[in-house]
Prior knowledge:
The complex is a heterotrimer. Chain A is of the alpha/beta class. The longest helix of chain A is centred in the last third of the chain and has 20 residues, at about 600-615. In chain B, strand 1, helix 2 (about 50-55) and strand 2 form a beta-alpha-beta unit. In chain B, helix 1 crosses helix 7 (about 185-195) and helix 3 (about 75-90) runs parallel beside helix 5 (about 110-120). The radius of gyration of chain B is 19 Å and the shape is globular. In chain C, helix 1 (about 10-20) packs parallel to helix 6, helix 3 (about 60-75) packs parallel to helix 4 and helix 6 (about 145-155) packs across helix 8. Chain C is globular. At the A-B interface, strand 29 and helix 24 of A face helix 1 and helix 9 of B.
Amino acid sequence: MMEITICGRGGQGGVTLAKIIASAYFLKGKYVQAFGVYAAERSGAPLQAFVRVDDEEITNHNQVEHPDHIVVLDRTLIAAGMDASMKPGGFIIINTPADKTGFEEHFSGRKVATVDATSIAVAHGLGTRTVPIVNTVMAGSIARVLGLTLTEILAALEHLNFTGVNKTCAREAYTLVATRSLPGEIHRPSMPPAKVRVADLFDEDVGGMPKIKTGSWATEKPERRRLTPPCNHVCPAGNDVRGFIDAVGKQEYDRALSVLLQTSPLPAVCGRVCPAPCMDTCNRAEFDQSVNVREIERAAADLGVRPAPVRAWRDAAVAVVGSGPAGLSTAYQLARLGYPVTLFEAGDELGGVLRTGIPAYRLPREVLDREIGYILSHDISVRTGQVLTRADMLTLSREFQAVFVATGLQHVSDLDLGDQAGVTPLQGLHFLEQVRQGNMRLTGQRVVVIGGGNTAMDAARSALRIGAREVRVLYRRTRSEMPAIFEEVEQALEEGIILDELVAPVSLQDSGNGPVLTCQGMKLGPPDASGRPRPIADTNPEARFELACDLVILALGQSHDISILPEGSEIKEGEALLGLSGAPLFVGGDFATNAGTVAAAIGCGLRAARHIHRTLTGEDLFPPAEEPVATPAQIRFQRFEHQPPEAVRTLSPAVRRRCFDEVHLGFQAGPGGAGAVAEAQRCLSCGVCNRCDRCLEYCPEGILRRSDGEDGYVFDLEYCKGCGVCMTACPRGAIYMAQL
Amino acid sequence: MSAVTPSKPYETHLLRPGNTNCAGCGMSIGLQWLDEALGDEKPVLVIPSCCGIVTAGAFPTSGYGVPTAATTFASSPAVATGISAVAAMNGIDNPVICWAGDGGSYDIGLATLSAAAERNEDIIYICYDNEIYGNTGGQRSGATPVGAVTSTTPEGKTERKKDLMAIMAAHRIPYAATLSIGHREDFLRKIRYARSVKGFRFLVMLSPCPTGWKSEPDQSTELIELAVRCGLFPLYEIFDGRRYRINQRPDNTSIEPYIRQQRRFSQVWNNTGALQAFIDAQWQYLDGMATVFPAKEKPPLPK
Amino acid sequence: MGRTLATGNHVAGHTLALAGEANRNARGCCAGAYPITPQTEIIEFLSAFRFNKGRVVLVESEHSAMAVCIGAALAGARTFTASSSNGLAYMTENIFAAGYYRLPTVMIAVNRTLGPPWNIWVDQGDSLMMRDAAWLQFYCDSHQDLADTILLAFRVAEDHRVMLPVIVAMDGFVTSHTQMVVDLPTQEQVDALLPPCNIPHRLKHAHPATFGGMTFSNETEHHRYAIQHSMEQVFPVLEEARDEFENIFGRRPAGVLEAFDTEDAEIVLVACNTMARTLHNVVRERRARGEKIGMIRQKLFRPFPREQFLAAIGAAKKIAVLDRNHSPGSGGIFWQEIATTLRQRPDVLLQDYLVGLGGGDVTPDNINAIIDDLNQRQASSPPEWKDTSQ
């Protein structure tokens, strides 16, 4: 007689497998017996099934005690002593992936046969993902080991009405099963007989906790993960956008500000002027509308209290040349790391383009002063009014242990407009500086601004405010190609500025009645190097026209002046400078990258500080590789209610076009930030647990607890059945199920 | 080391870890929320032969952290009556809750359920309806929807699902309501409301059985949300058997995502007519009742 | 109450109610009740009774009636009910449940023939059908025996050494609907006899547990063994109960059986209920004529008192069992039990007589014929059918 014990879990089809094997021998004329140990039908619970085969009628109805072979349908059932009563000479046939071992030590001295039946079953769709049905697959591997032919096992499947894919799977397993003998001696562990305590009906001990640790049933376990929210991913400054929004949502402005100040010393600035690529990538836009990140950053900066500055304690001193956003950012980060910093500025005031290039109605002076004031509260010495030369740079590289250069874009692009008829076009940045100093007033002139970037918008809107009668902006492509922030253009148009799209200036001459700008109408052609459509002159004769004007302002872009750098220098990777004796010299900001935004400059500054620190000490403070970005596919939008963004207040065009008062007034709701809080609570916290408790509420086993650690929650894997409801309950993709 | 907030001890959970329910069992989620809704009030559970008593496990341990009486299949409302009667005469206020499957409620136990309702016994009766006789391997019950494949209806059930809410309403009991494990706030509110009134209270929750429905365990709550949204499982309350309040109307979600994720509906996948007709008729009736007999004033929410 | 004229049903209702009331200072009493001929007056009495702390729940079926008793007992109250015939059959599942649950419910079985075909008259088959359900079974021959036995039943059932439910059976119509003189107990007497009902395994919030959940073979074996052990304790506990009863009521109620003139009897006849009273009259008459004849009224059927029975038959050589019941494919049920008991007495000729099945009136003539038949027997034969219409 041959006896086989099958060890499996409810739902894997163990009892049916016994019948399949029995059928194979039945069809060969043998006497057979197949049965399972019956209890309540429970998916995942361990169970056993038995097969007997004999040439004579079988009268033994006991459970099999000493099997010739053991079949293991689920490798997590393997435990020491499992084969203790198995007769020598047979096989242990195991469903296991090839790369998983660990059972050898339990089955020393035995012959084992292995096949990855689960993969075959899953690939052919047998059962569910959580409980694949492996019986027909295993039938193939068992048949091979027992010496049945493929035909015989397929006949058995046919006999039990298993067709098609089941036969395919059995055939695959028949082919793929691998056998080997394990070294060593067969274990004969002495197992003391299990003592079963039977409680009396009236026993005070009844009613205790169940004994089964149901964690052993699971084929998967929940893992927490932290995806990168798209806003974090795209922020040029590397801000933890989600992080500070989360804090504002909880009305913790100080904490929000602290989060921001890790990466950026200029939140009040960015909260006013950043083009906010984060808002363009916000996943909430797939649901209703983006979160208004910029306004929340502004609120955090305006309402939070800044922590006390770190005092310098290191010996190495660093020189930072240029006090624009990149220089300020580098100086701040190095000071936080404990380095004494000396900040050099060619002009009389700190801030670079923040001060000279952004008008007060976008960035009030007192806001900028406050930001810079906080930066300077660190151990940073300032030397203004110093235009450094190449020779000065060499001196610096001897006096300091590291030097960082971020002098911005000193060259402005010019345009030849002919003899200019006595009307000298002004450079936009120069114009803005004059306005800032209070040296520029207009009395009803007609102003034409040429360009499509933020400087052009700033110049146009400033001209209006200082008294221009009419302001026109000429741009050679269309509005969609304009690099200026969309909102800036919108507000400019609201203020009555006229946008002439597809117009390029040709020449400025005197008409006899005053200056006249000859203009050329343009058309859009195929893309140029910048990827935008190339503007082509419209050959239609009516496309050329004349524009009377009193003042022309050029805002055509800028470029850097690297004459300050030592001879033979090259900027590599946009940031670092290599191949120099003396102190290491780094470059950053627009000077190095021409990225053109405050946020990018701030990001440069942080990276520069880390480069410098690593060069000086060897310590690497760069963050590890980013986790994958959370996409809308990971967000369960149906969990959320539609909610439009909080209303924000702006000065009306009629009021603001004649003054330099700040245009944006922040959220409508609130003193003390109620609007910011409400808007922050619209954040979905993509890919990052925000302790909403949903996983804890939905767990069918009640085995989650809150933790104040990073993970937010702890799973009790002793009891977790691996159902995955927590993964589905999480609205933001912070949980996934990993194979055990 | 980070600090972990200790959960209340596992022994005191209504449904204790280590229970043998399948992974993703709808009943388990229902019991967790029942526990949450009742708070410190510990019920006596009265459970007939069904999956719910297998949950309790083998003597002498117990999968439930509250006193639990196992009854014969049809008997739970009568046993609960006895317990409730003695509790009342001894001034004990702990709720007596029947926790029964659809077999014991729609079929074999219907007479017992009806009589207890007719006597307006002070009992909360909760039916976790997995639309099959789950404990015996998934045979059809009176609650099985039309078209569903079960182990005794391999071609799909030809009869429609019995309307037990209407039957219970006909007894004019103080409160009857449907519960959804896809709608947590609604679920908790209804339990708390039931607890705040006296007399016979009947609640029925659609309970996914991944084993019997041949669905993925991790979709259990999503499936019920879909069932509510497509109109198959209406979320509503009936007060005094006469006044109707609909908690959520169907929102044009198709029946497809719901039935496509359950292989028990394989006969319906390309043949949704009968099931859709059932939904339409059901809502015609409910909309009618809610229009003619609305529950006007919101009953006060308990503290 | 004292000396009263009452029907058997009235006696049962009265005594049950007093027993229930006696628990008014503990957790009270509760009954699930459903009517069936010939028991209806019992539940009508109970429905009208004003309990201080009790409730009679009028359910929709006998199955639920026992379920209510189970629930109430699990909650710690004293419980009781009554049924007959097909009502008992419908109740069967929960009768077994109450037994295996070890709940001390007292049930009055007003013995009536099982159907279909429908037959409302007396036959012990309905209560005997429950002999495997872990219940005690007492068979009462008179109104007084009934009143006394109901009180003994509560006292024995609720004793922690026993803690099993009890059937107290009486003959349908012949006892239940017949008015006789009987000494009914007073509330004071019942209060004195019955201590408060205290069920150790009732549901407790202080110590939550599941009752009646699953077990494997090992636990079940122990459980059944424990029940058997408790059955064996019935004998000493019943004796204590009789002593206490005698102290309060001034008379000693019958115990497990009543033997008359068996000490020197050559033949002994065995019967229960009212048929035993008819048998007693016949035996007395024939004794007076010099026949060495005796009888046993079998009162306790579960647990079956083997030792006491063997002691009671003395040296008799022929035993006749009068069974107003029948197990098809075998014979009378009392006969089967007695046959097992007599394996220690292979010298005894044991003969089963099936008489009065379906409620036939068993007269002295019928019994005389049986005795004559027994006297001339040399050997036993398969159960003899004695048609009462002859």
